[in-house]
Specification:
Distance between the termini: 13 Å
Number of domains: 1
Order of helices and strands: EEEHEEEH
Radius of gyration: 12 Å
Largest sheet: 4 strands, mixed
């Protein structure tokens, strides 16, 4: 299983990530609020501004203070290193 760094010591299983998106749009903000109410939100931003929302295959949403581009690059590097 490969893991990807989502910032400040947080890591998630790369194979479980469905999407990495920006938190700025209204539909994403609604999705985050819905998951918070359902108890499926994991806030890994450690009190910093949320820059990326990770949608997991389990239905959970993970908030990260790292930008989506940085997480995408880390995922790409992980795939290259394990090829």
């Amino acid at each position: 299983m490969r893991f990807v760094n989502i910032g400040f010591g947080g890591i998630v299983a790369q194979e479980r990530i469905v999407a990495v998106v920006s938190p700025d749009s209204a539909p994403i903000k609604r999705m985050v609020q819905d998951m918070r109410e359902k108890g499926l939100l994991i806030d890994a931003s450690f009190g910093r501004k949320t820059q990326a929302v990770l949608v997991m295959d389990s239905g959970h949403i993970v908030l990260s203070a790292q930008p989506p581009e940085t997480i995408g690059e880390a995922m790409h590097k992980g795939e290259k290193n394990n090829a």
